[in-house]
């Protein structure tokens, strides 16, 4: 197929190795039933505006009109480079069902599985997978979501944030970094799966001139695969979308030609949320004994009352208490009297003294830890470096008034995660998972933009609460996580050194 050769050439791989999916150039099947709003739709009674949404790329159509089609299922997505699940959560909260998630690091994959127990989680190198593997995984995920229903096999969105260390200013922007190839692997899988739309997130460094070649190859391949896209020249600011953090990101949104016209995510138009907005209702720790054997904190009666009474704008907008106000997200079991993400980081007396002397908005000179300011958004939360750059942990910001670094739960709030969302029980893995993730509110804005382009109006979740996930998933050692997913242990980054020597005795 000519389309297959063009895309394979652009991506630097042979069509035999990277075949396009069966939907490329195929005539419309299933009695020319069309897809709209994320689901199979019945024949319209008004055939005068006929177009087939399964075969429009080749212009073949058997007379189904799109103006009166009735959606019968929620849109579905596959998440590549899924991490702990920030992008998955944002898309789910907008009305998508994330059927499949691919994550190379088994510790992160286990965390994703805990938070999305109905998704099929594939722990593998993205380069080893083909489109048919993703469809097979998505079918498993569909069966877990809707065991009594058949799936039509149509993927509405492929989403993902390919590894960005090679493009990141924090990662020294290395054009030769072999991880840059993940951009092309993402594009390859989009071309093979042929979703109705895609979302690719990355750092602003992707737009740097030194990455023109790889960026151009990716965009040409997406165009050859039949996609129109936006966002490839723009930088979004997370604080414009309700995230209480200054974080700049590129968000490329694409839609198959004929499906709709993609538009960039729309900012909320509301005021910028601050650290004070984000941390409202969370308990103070200065009079509490350190939490070192678990990451959970049981609230006193007074602390629980303060937590439940917190109803600020951010608390409601981000739905941090998991009430699923609009009904689009799937229900989760959350018991607020016991909060997670509170394993203590133990500091030396000299560190505590230095932290106490550091003003809000300033950097502590020795640890280089930035002290959060109550009346400002947080600065960008970082994940640290991978093992190929020494496995440094990033400097965690200091709490605005307490002489300590923030907890994982506080960092999660600053990233717009709800309080029911869980991370690994160790500090190093938890903060890596948060810093590497797409803020859910930013992801939700991208999902809403794609739904608008596809003219899709998702139904509210009809699922009951998922069965309890296995708590052991959140405390796996690298060896245990690798064994659970039956992969090699060397897929897990090992922590060798720490960038913050003054933070001694960390219970990580």
UniProtKB/TrEMBL annotation:
A Pfam family that the UniProt record links to this protein: DNA_methylase
Enzyme class, broadest EC rank: transferase
Keyword hit for RNA-binding: no
GO molecular function annotations of the record: DNA (cytosine-5-)-methyltransferase activity
EC number: 2.1.1.37
Protein family membership: Belongs to the class I-like SAM-binding methyltransferase superfamily. C5-methyltransferase family.
PANTHER family according to UniProt: CYTOSINE-SPECIFIC METHYLTRANSFERASE, DNA (CYTOSINE-5)-METHYLTRANSFERASE 1
Protein name (record): DNA (cytosine-5-)-methyltransferase
Organism for this UniProt entry: Agromyces luteolus
């Amino acid at each position: 197929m000519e389309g297959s050769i063009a895309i394979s050439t652009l991506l630097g791989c042979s069509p035999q190795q990277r075949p396009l999916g069966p939907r490329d150039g195929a005539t419309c099947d299933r009695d020319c039933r069309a897809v709209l709003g994320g689901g199979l739709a019945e024949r319209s009674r008004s055939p005068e505006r006929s177009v087939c949404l399964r075969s429009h790329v080749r212009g073949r159509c058997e007379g189904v009109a799109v103006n009166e089609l009735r959606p019968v299922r929620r849109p579905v997505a596959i998440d590549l480079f899924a991490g702990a699940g920030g992008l998955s959560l944002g898309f789910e909260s907008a009305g998508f069902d994330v059927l499949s998630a691919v994550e190379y690091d088994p510790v992160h994959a286990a965390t994703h599985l805990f938070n999305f127990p109905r998704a099929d989680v594939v722990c593998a190198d993205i380069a080893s997978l083909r489109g048919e593997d993703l469809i097979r995984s998505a079918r498993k995920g569909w069966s877990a979501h809707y065991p009594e229903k058949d799936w039509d096999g149509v993927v509405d969105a492929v989403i993902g944030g390919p590894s960005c260390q090679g493009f990141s200013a924090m990662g020294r922007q290395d054009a030769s970094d072999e991880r840059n190839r993940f951009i092309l692997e993402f594009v390859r899988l989009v071309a093979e799966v042929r979703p109705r739309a895609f979302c690719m997130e990355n750092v602003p460094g992707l737009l740097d001139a030194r990455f023109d070649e790889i960026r151009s190859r990716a965009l040409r391949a997406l165009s050859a695969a039949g996609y129109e896209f936006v966002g490839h020249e723009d930088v979004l600011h997370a604080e414009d979308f309700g995230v209480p953090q200054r974080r700049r990101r590129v968000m490329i949104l694409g839609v198959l030609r004929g499906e709709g016209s993609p538009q960039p995510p729309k900012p909320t138009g509301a005021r910028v949320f601050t650290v004070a907005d984000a941390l409202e209702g969370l308990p103070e720790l200065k009079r509490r004994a350190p939490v070192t054997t678990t990451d959970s904190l049981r609230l006193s009666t007074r602390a629980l009352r303060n937590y439940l009474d917190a109803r600020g704008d951010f608390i409601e907008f981000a739905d941090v208490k998991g009430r699923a106000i609009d009904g689009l997200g799937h229900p989760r079991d959350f018991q607020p009297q016991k909060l997670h993400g509170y394993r203590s980081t133990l500091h030396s007396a000299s560190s505590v003294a230095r932290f106490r002397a550091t003003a809000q908005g300033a950097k502590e000179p020795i640890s280089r830890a930035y002290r959060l300011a109550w009346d400002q958004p947080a600065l960008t939360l970082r994940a640290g470096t991978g093992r190929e750059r020494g496995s440094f942990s990033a400097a965690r910001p200091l709490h605005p008034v307490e002489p300590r670094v923030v907890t994982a739960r506080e960092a999660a709030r600053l990233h717009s995660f709800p309080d029911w969302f869980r991370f690994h029980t160790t500090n190093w893995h938890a903060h890596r998972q948060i810093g590497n993730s797409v803020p859910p509110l930013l992801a939700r804005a991208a999902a809403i933009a794609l739904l608008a382009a596809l003219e899709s109006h998702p139904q509210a979740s009809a699922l009951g609460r998922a069965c309890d996930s296995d708590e052991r998933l959140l405390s796996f050692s690298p060896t245990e996580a690798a064994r659970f997913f039956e992969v090699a242990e060397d897929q897990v980054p090992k922590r060798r050194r720490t960038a913050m020597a003054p933070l001694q005795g960390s219970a990580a």
